Amino acid sequence: VKEVALSLSGAFKMSFLQILVADDHDLMRRGLKSMLETHPGWAICAEAHTGTEAVAKANELKPNVAILDISMPEMDGLEAARQIRKQSPRTEILVLSMHYSDQLIRDILEAGVRGYVVKSDSDRDLVLAVEALANHKPFFTPHATELMLTNLNASSSSLINGTETLKDRLTTREREIIRLISEGNSSKEVASTLGISVKTADTHRANIMRKLQVHTVSELVRYALRNQIIEP
Amino acid sequence: LIADDHEAVRRGLRSALVGAGWQVCGEAVNGQEAINKVKELLPDVVILDISMPIMGGLEAAPEILKSAPATKIVAFTMHESQQIRTEMARIGVHGIAVKSAPLSNLLATIMSVSET
């Protein structure tokens, strides 16, 4: 929390939570500002009416929390969230939208947003959401969480049924070969360890590279680390 | 008087109205409360959200017109349509303002109805 020095009797300091509010509707900005400012220790450090303005002000002021309306002119809240997370990673983002949407939840999670409130629930949830985000904890309403879990289940099931899982993409033998190559073994050593010909080992290696769309051993090692095929 | 079920909207309206030099005598969160407060406070103007729980603005407006004939009603709505305009005119609502429009439009509407 940014510290703002208050020279009252010259001797004490108070911390304010710095909040940026971005909404293209003057009415909502005023209302949100009024709701938040009644909370002790919170201050609105900036207001923005477009995504571009929100990004510029967040970059300049590095607020603790940025509240972004999804639908704004010039740049929407989603793109603004992506850019703010990149330029000011300590700034937590709360997205406000008119309705719940599972696609929007997917998008905002990918953008690094950790709080989502629909405007009609803002009376109840806004302060709770800002409190959570101020402590770098996520805030999603039960309805939003339900949508997220539905997405997750759908996505898991498509991975299991599709061609994207590691299990389906790679055979057990191929996983083993990835492990051996990632540990620094040559094709000859892989062949020797597995009791196969060098030509077969090379064929497996080429298949793995094609399936994973990687071109170098270092890319393969990164893949193996990311997917816990080898330990770091 | 401000009647809207959302706190952020009520606060935004209050801030804008006070900033424009008007006095907000009360707030209501549904149509029934709006009717009661209009009877009690007899405001010059009531800003009445169309969509509120328990009782919406369209249902509250006739009762308000009956119990406080001098009070002007500005219907406040998310979307404007010919159907809403026709219904408002039938009820006898004095003005209509759209939530997504600039606040200056709402202030102009209030000014206009309060002068008639």
Structural commentary:
The complex is a heterodimer of chains A (232) and B (116). Chain A has eleven helices and eight strands. In chain A, strand 6, helix 4 (102-110) and strand 7 (115-118) form a beta-alpha-beta unit. Chain A starts with a strand and ends in a 6-residue tail after the last helix. Chain A has 232 residues and is α/β, with parallel strands linked by helices. Chain A has helices at 26-37, 51-61, 77-87, 102-110, 122-134, 142-161, 166-169, 172-182, 187-194, 198-212, 217-226, and strands at 3-6, 12-15, 17-22, 42-48, 65-69, 92-97, 115-118, 139-140. In chain A, the strands form two sheets. Chain A has a six-stranded parallel sheet with strand order 4-3-5-6-7-8, with helices on both faces. Chain A has a two-stranded antiparallel sheet with strand order 1-2. Chain A is 53% helix and 16% strand. By secondary structure, chain B is α/β, with parallel strands linked by helices. Chain B has five helices and five strands, in the order E-H-E-H-E-H-E-H-E-H. Chain B has helices at residues 7-19, 31-41, 57-67, 82-91, 103-115; strands spanning 2-3, 27-28, 45-49, 72-77, 95-98. Chain B has a five-stranded parallel sheet with strand order 2-1-3-4-5, with helices on both faces. In chain B, strand 1, helix 1 (7-19) and strand 2 form a beta-alpha-beta unit. In chain B, helix 2 (31-41) runs parallel beside helix 3. The mean pLDDT of chain B is 93. Classes of the chains: A alpha/beta (232), B alpha/beta (116). At the A-B interface, helix 1 and helix 5 of A face helix 1 of B.
